[in-house]
């Protein structure tokens, strides 16, 4: 290969570094401190659209795939040595954060700094295990992403990185050689293409199409058409495609060879070859004219591009501006600047252009571009706080721009009100750069501008001079201070000047000063570090069964089917760890696996059953239950529950006939639950007649009983003609629908759409929304549109969709409607639809909808025009949706066109786009297409994520192909993490170590592992439950970065409100509540209670009232205590020292007889906890006044009980005007000492049996029995039952027959006791 190319005319130079040029002359000054900045992506004629004519470091449009080229891809290669692998993994994790910083910098500004790049490089070197992907990342960063660095320095840095990483064992493949070629082209580095090929041949690396394209660009960059033609002929002989990138390079080559006519003719050659010149081609031609200073040719080329319907962006015009300035034709720059349209990405692109121009000595042109920034259109009022051009001034300082120029720029900015203090900022930059000459010059300029110059301005310079032991420099700087009239104060003299001299006398002689001074000494105090203590928490094996059930229950049927083998392996691992599960848990898991249609896993779960329970597990559930039923019936006991369980088990076994037989035999024992199970089973098997009979039979037995929502929806699907009546019955019986039921309702409506027409669906849809059974959504509205589309009525579908938008603010199936309209060519209806979408959803949404419609119908030319609309940004969620749609329907051509068209889209993640295509290649086993995609990714200069490389490698390996790159490997722990991390952190969350779980998920995120939204939400809830709000919000951001549109669940949002309230972040909590209500979600009672209490603690009365108003507007009212808001408003008044308002509020409440039972215990408890006697006295008087004047004893009772609860018995004696509410104290506080205190205060308490029923809860059984017998208290069955429990707990024999009291009867007895006590107390009150 190299021999073939050596036959061509060799360039008159030899390689440097990698291909060393001897005696290379540096054309730039040494770099001082670097700061952010780049727009210098030069066009090299190599990559489609990304590359154009090769001007020296000419800035190009900051294409989205270049913006995204720096990514977090550091995972150490797995070595055979286990210890070495562990070190690599740990070091690679530490390196990930540095790579993230690079990525963030590129995404935000389109550039990186040399300092940042070197830091990452040194981190890699310290690890000692550089991966191929890390090397690729660093090499590609040495080009136009460093606009603040001169090209020659960038190339030297690339050579240094290449050599160092190779020494450390990095394996290079063709992608690395292509990357260094790209750097050479971007940096205008002269090298010999033939020698480059020879080095590749020596390294046994075969060049590919990208290599040849870039070598052609290298020849053309130097005007060597002959050399380019040699490689071009070789490409043709190898049947390699000649792409637009090659033609673009030839446009540049002919122009630099002095043949501009041939450059123009290349466009004709392209058309004859079937390639339509694109934007890159026209930019190459524009740059060729600009280098020649042919402004008329530039204008003509712009007109041709416009006539060819080729949209040129601001970045393209900036390329022309750079070429004009670099070639010395600055007089034409203003005309080009006027053509800039200030698109969305203008600011970062223009900043990068300015930085590149300054780096190449074109500061004046850069300043013209700076003054054209759109943000300059502002009024004088806001200009005071606005500083434009900081980056410009800083880079001028770093490039050692002449003082006069810098001073003129500062004056211009200040006079134009574009910068409030340009001289001060520039001086700061000069001081940071330790540039003494420029700093002193700027201070002189400031003095002339009557700006203050203070002693501390000189401190950074003095520090550096003292550090360098430069006493002469210190003396000269002191003279400068005297010339500027800056008085040398004591800190400056003692801390920054005198340390430069050996003694005070030497300083006096050098500075000729006579006043005394002093020297200070500093001592460093070393604080010993403490060792951290790690606490390892071991999960409890006995909880394994519950975890296992929860894990399987949280998975969908599809997930279980896919993860079947992994679950089996997991079960075996649990068995190896001797983890067992109870038989009841086994049965639950067995039912789940049955419902998921994976019975083959049941035997694996059965191995985990506790051996002592295994015998009972071997019996089938129905057999066990039927035996139990017979036993209960023989003992004349209730069989209702057991009968229901048998029916449920039989239906699970699809044995409907036996279930109906049992129902017939025991009809008098059938419950509503049993009927519901049978009805649901009949509906699922389309047994409509039997379902209807069961429904009628159940209604005859009890007309008030209601089925749950799922059963009603199942009936709807079976009885479409009676669906409206079923919906009305649901409303009458207050049947509520949750999210799962809403999904079921959607399927029911869709089923009805397939059976009936739009009229039926519209009636059902209107009924559902009118009755308030479900809130309108795009999903529930879509069956109506489906009905129209199935009947090919596009006009009706559009009208129905627009009606849904008008009534419910949803546009269901708009994509399918647009696709149909485009296919029919109905421009009138299409325009109507686009107008509505644009008006309701915004122009960008409309453009994406139209783009996807054109793609779907194969109108690729129209789709390209849409996606190249100036100012359009990438919307990852929309692109992801359509890509998944293409993958699901195996639409490779459509997906490929979308990936190609979005190459120029601002902020488009190119790696993500190519990963979609690779996924489809894997599903279709198309390795040739995958291999071609790898070449295209190199053309676009994309650095793939490790997951993308692994996917591509997997495709190639599975087809027996050689992988042309180093595959990033991970150790066994990392491989397993993707499969089991969900289980691990779920266990951690269960055992209250959510923070450790969060750290694990963070580690997984750094390695590129992504989980589902439910997984993230579960851990967010666990973190919030522990109060770790910052970690929870960070995890939410992680989830949002992977899952477009990620939202926390209602439970998580409620927990967030609770956490914010506990931390007294009431403003944030209220905002969270409002955002929750805006999306029609209902907050929990606990969240509102904690929020209102927090507002009360803050004294925010208006905030409480606002929350109260929000709660009144809820469609689903919450069961709040009537006193929640009143009590906390009173506490807020107390907090604000407004006791009169608090008392007035409560007295107004209690003077109304309807409110005599309202409790204010919460207020009294808070007052007593705060120990505020003044407030307590005020409210005690109020309670006494309400009792004496209005016969309202509740406040007095509340105060009495709170005093008693806090062991203030003496104070409680003064509040003995108690009422029936004393019984509440017994219920709420079953503590022996406090109940006895109550009895001591009220010795003649009437309900002794009630008192003793509560004493049983907190007393020794034998002593209490003796006391009750001594006092002759009659013991009811409930108390006897409790006494029996106490005896057994104490290990004693029960000395009396234990009555069989059920839980229902126990509850009823308790309620009766409460009612009897209330009646007695009421009678007592009336007598008084």
UniProtKB/TrEMBL annotation:
One of its GO terms (biological process) is regulation of mitochondrial translation. InterPro entries: LRP130 (IPR033490), PPR_rpt (IPR002885), PROP1-like_PPR_dom (IPR033443), TPR-like_helical_dom_sf (IPR011990). PPR repeats lie at residues 208-242, 243-277, 671-705, 910-944. Keywords: Coiled coil, Repeat. GO terms for cellular component: mitochondrion; nucleus. Residues 235-343 form the PROP1-like PPR domain. It comes from the Eukaryota. Gene3D superfamilies: Tetratricopeptide repeat domain (1.25.40.10). Residues 1314-1328 have a biased composition (Polar residues). Residues 615-669 form a coiled coil. Pfam families: PPR (PF01535), PPR_3 (PF13812), PPR_long (PF17177). GO terms for molecular function: mRNA 3'-UTR binding. Residues 1296-1328 are annotated as: Disordered. This is PROP1-like PPR domain-containing protein. It comes from Sphaeramia orbicularis (orbiculate cardinalfish). The gene is lrpprc.
């Amino acid at each position: 290969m190299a021999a073939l190319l050596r036959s061509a005319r060799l360039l008159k130079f030899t390689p440097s570094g990698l291909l060393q040029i001897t005696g290379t002359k540096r054309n730039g000054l040494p770099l001082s401190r670097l700061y952010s900045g780049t727009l210098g992506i030069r066009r090299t004629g190599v990559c489609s659209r990304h590359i154009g004519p090769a001007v020296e470091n000419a800035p190009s449009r900051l294409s989205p795939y270049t913006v995204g080229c720096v990514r977090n891809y550091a995972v150490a290669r797995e070595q055979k040595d286990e210890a070495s692998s562990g070190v690599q993994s740990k070091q690679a994790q530490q390196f990930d954060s540095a790579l993230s910083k690079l990525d963030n910098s590129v995404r935000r500004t389109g550039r990186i700094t040399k300092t940042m790049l070197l830091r990452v490089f040194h981190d890699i070197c310290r690890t000692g295990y550089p991966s191929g992907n890390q090397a690729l990342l660093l090499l590609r960063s040495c080009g136009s992403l460093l606009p603040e660095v001169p090209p020659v320095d960038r190339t030297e840095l690339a050579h240094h990185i290449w050599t160092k990483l190779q020494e450390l064992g990095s394996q290079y493949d063709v992608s690395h050689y292509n990357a260094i070629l790209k750097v050479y082209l971007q940096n205008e580095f002269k090298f010999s293409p033939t020698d480059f090929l020879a080095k590749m041949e020596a390294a046994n690396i075969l060049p590919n199409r990208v290599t040849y394209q870039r070598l052609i660009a290298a020849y053309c960059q130097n005007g060597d058409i002959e050399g380019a033609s040699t490689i071009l002929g070789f490409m043709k002989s190898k049947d390699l495609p000649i792409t637009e990138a090659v033609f673009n390079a030839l446009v540049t080559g002919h122009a630099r060879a002095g043949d501009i006519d041939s450059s123009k003719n290349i466009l004709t050659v392209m058309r004859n070859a079937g390639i339509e010149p694109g934007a890159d081609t026209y930019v190459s031609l524009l740059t060729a004219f600009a280098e020649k200073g042919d402004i008329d040719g530039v204008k003509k080329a712009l007109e041709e591009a416009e006539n060819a319907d080729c949209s040129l962006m601001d970045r393209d015009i900036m390329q022309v501006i750079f070429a004009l300035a670099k070639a010395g034709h600055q007089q034409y720059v203003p005309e080009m600047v006027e053509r800039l349209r200030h698109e969305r990405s203008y600011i970062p692109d223009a900043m990068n252009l300015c930085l590149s121009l300054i780096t190449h000595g074109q500061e004046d042109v850069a300043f013209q571009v700076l003054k054209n920034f759109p943000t300059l259109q502002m009024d004088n009022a806001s200009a005071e706080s606005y500083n434009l051009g900081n980056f410009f001034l800083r880079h001028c300082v770093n490039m050692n721009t002449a003082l006069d120029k810098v001073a003129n720029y500062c004056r211009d900015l200040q006079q134009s009100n574009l910068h409030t203090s340009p001289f001060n900022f520039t001086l700061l930059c000069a001081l940071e750069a330790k540039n003494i000459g420029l700093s002193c010059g700027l201070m002189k300029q400031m003095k002339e501008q009557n700006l203050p110059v203070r002693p501390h301005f000189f401190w950074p310079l003095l520090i550096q001079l003292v550090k360098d032991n430069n006493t002469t420099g210190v003396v000269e700087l002191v003279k400068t201070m005297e010339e500027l009239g800056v008085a040398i104060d004591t800190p400056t003299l003692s801390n920054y000047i005198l340390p430069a001299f050996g003694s005070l006398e030497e300083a006096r002689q050098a500075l000729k000063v006579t006043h005394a001074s002093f020297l200070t000494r500093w001592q460093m105090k070393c604080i010993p570090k403490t060792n951290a203590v790690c606490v390892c928490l071991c999960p409890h094996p006995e909880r394994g069964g519950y975890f296992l059930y929860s894990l399987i229950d949280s998975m969908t049927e599809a997930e279980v089917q896919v993860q079947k083998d992994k679950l089996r392996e997991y079960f075996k691992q649990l068995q190896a760890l001797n983890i067992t599960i109870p038989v009841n848990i086994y049965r639950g898991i067995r039912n789940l696996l049955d419902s998921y249609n994976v019975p083959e896993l049941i035997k694996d779960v059965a191995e985990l059953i506790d051996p002592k329970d295994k015998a009972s597990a071997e019996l089938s559930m129905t057999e066990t239950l039927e035996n139990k039923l017979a036993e209960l019936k023989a003992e004349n006991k209730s069989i209702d529950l057991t009968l229901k369980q048998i029916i449920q088990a039989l239906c699970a076994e699809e044995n409907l006939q036996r279930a109906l037989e049992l129902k017939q035999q025991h009809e008098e024992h059938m419950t509503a639950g049993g009927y519901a199970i049978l009805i649901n089973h009949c509906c699922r098997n389309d047994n409509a007649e039997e379902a209807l009979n069961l429904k009628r039979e159940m209604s005859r037995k009890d007309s008030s009983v209601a089925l749950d929502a799922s059963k009603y929806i199942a009936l709807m699907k079976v009885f479409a003609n009676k669906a409206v009546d079923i919906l009305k019955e649901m409303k009458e019986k207050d049947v509520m629908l949750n999210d799962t039921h809403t999904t079921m309702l959607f399927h029911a409506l869709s089923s009805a759409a397939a059976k009936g027409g739009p009229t039926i669906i519209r009636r059902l849809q209107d009924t559902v929304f009118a009755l308030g059974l479900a809130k309108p959504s795009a999903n529930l509205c879509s069956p109506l549109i489906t009905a129209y589309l199935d009947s090919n009525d596009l006009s009706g579908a559009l009208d129905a969709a627009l009606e849904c938008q008008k009534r419910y603010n949803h546009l269901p199936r708009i994509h399918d409607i647009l696709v149909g309209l485009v296919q029919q060519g109905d421009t009138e209806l299409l325009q109507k639809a686009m107008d509505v979408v644009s008006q309701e959803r915004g122009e960008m949404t409309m453009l994406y909808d139209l783009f996807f419609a054109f793609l779907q119908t194969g109108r690729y030319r129209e789709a390209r025009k849409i996606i190249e609309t100036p100012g359009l940004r990438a919307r990852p969620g929309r692109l992801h949706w359509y890509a998944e749609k293409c993958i699901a329907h195996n639409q490779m051509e459509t997906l490929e066109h979308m990936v190609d068209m979005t190459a120029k889209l601002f902020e488009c993640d190119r790696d993500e786009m190519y990963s979609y295509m690779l996924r489809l290649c894997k599903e279709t086993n198309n390795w040739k297409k995958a291999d071609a995609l790898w070449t295209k990714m190199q053309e676009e200069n994309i650095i793939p994520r490790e997951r993308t490389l692994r996917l591509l490698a997997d495709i190639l390996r599975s087809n027996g192909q050689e992988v042309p790159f180093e595959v990033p490997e991970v150790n066994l722990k990392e491989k397993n993490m993707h499969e089991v991390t969900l289980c691990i952190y779920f266990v951690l969350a269960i055992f209250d170590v959510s923070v450790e779980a969060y750290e694990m998920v963070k580690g997984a995120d750094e390695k590129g592992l992504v989980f589902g939204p439910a997984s993230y939400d579960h851990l967010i809830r666990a973190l919030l439950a522990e109060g770790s709000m910052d970690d929870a919000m960070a995890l939410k951001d992680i989830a949002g970065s992977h899952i477009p549109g990620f939202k926390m669940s209602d439970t998580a949002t409620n927990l967030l409100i609770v956490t914010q309230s506990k931390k007294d972040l009431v403003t944030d909590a209220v905002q969270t509540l409002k955002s929750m209500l805006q999306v029609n979600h209902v907050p929990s009672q606990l969240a509102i209670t904690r929020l209102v209490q927090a507002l009360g603690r803050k004294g925010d009365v208006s905030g409480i009232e606002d929350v109260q108003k929000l709660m009144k507007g809820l469609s689903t009212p919450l069961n709040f205590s009537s006193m929640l808001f009143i009590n906390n408003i009173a506490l807020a008044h107390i907090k604000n020292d407004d006791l009169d308002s608090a008392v007035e509020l409560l007295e107004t409440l209690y003077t109304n007889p309807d409110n005599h039972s309202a409790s204010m215990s919460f207020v009294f408890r808070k007052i007593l906890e705060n120990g505020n006697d003044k407030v307590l006295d005020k409210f005690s008087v109020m309670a006494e006044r309400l009792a004496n004047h209005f016969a309202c004893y509740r406040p007095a009772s509340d105060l009495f009980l709170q005093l008693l609860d806090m062991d203030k018995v003496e104070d409680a004696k003064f509040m003995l005007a108690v009422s029936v509410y004393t019984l509440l104290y017994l219920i709420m506080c079953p503590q022996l000492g406090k109940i006895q205190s109550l009895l001591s205060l009220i010795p003649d308490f009437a309900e002794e049996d009630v008192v003793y029923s509560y004493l049983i809860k907190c007393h020794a059984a034998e002593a209490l029995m003796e006391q009750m017998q001594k006092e002759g208290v009659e013991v009811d069955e409930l108390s006897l039952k409790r006494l029996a429990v106490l005896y057994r707990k104490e290990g004693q024999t029960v000395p009396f027959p234990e009555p069989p009291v059920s839980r229902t009867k126990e509850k009823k007895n308790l309620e009766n006791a409460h009612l009897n006590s209330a009646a007695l107390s009421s009678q007592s009150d009336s007598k008084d």
